[in-house]
Amino acid sequence: MDNELLKEKLKDISILCVEDEDGIREFIVSTLKYYFKEVYEASNGLEALEMYEEFRPKIILSDIEMPKMNGLEFVKRIRQNDLSTSIIMLTAYSNEEYLMSLINLNIDHFILKPLNSKKLNEALSKYIERNFSEQISLSENLKLDLSKRELIFEDCTIIPLRRRENDFLNLLYKNKNAITTYEQIEMELWQDKIMTSHAIKSFIKELRNKMPINIIKNVSQAGYILEQ
Fold this sequence. Notes:
By secondary structure, the chain is of the alpha/beta class.
């Protein structure tokens, strides 16, 4: 994506850069300041967790191998209560098993080291595509229009949704590579109310009845996952 377009889209968004090597962190932060209004930095996972709690950035760009608390543990802490913050990981490893462990943590994107401007541009462009598009594809022939709260089936059938239904499908989509747990659903959608077992079952049943195809898969005693 063109740098100027990226800058326009990202100018009001905050980002946290987590990297223990001073020289690399300085380079990344300097580059990020071209795009972002607010850039925070930390040199390890423990410091990053404190920065996250204080500033709540929209994006986190983090290394993995760091002192005090590594990047994976840092992300695990974040994902206990937060599925919406976008996370980009820097890694020197490219084997499939290792990368799958990142996917299971609901990582939005990973960048293989060494980092350069092109790789950073690609990662930020993917963030734009995911977060600035009003329509997301739940399956090959089913889309969700987040702003209109509508399902679009085969580009012709429109199915109106209530706010919670819209938010639930968006939550499954954001967490599509992992199980969305009952605890996450309660925290994100029920918030300060108690979500009973009967309430979630009734909610899912009613939503499934609206949908032309069933893509909501129940994982016994765990939660739900988007079946694509």
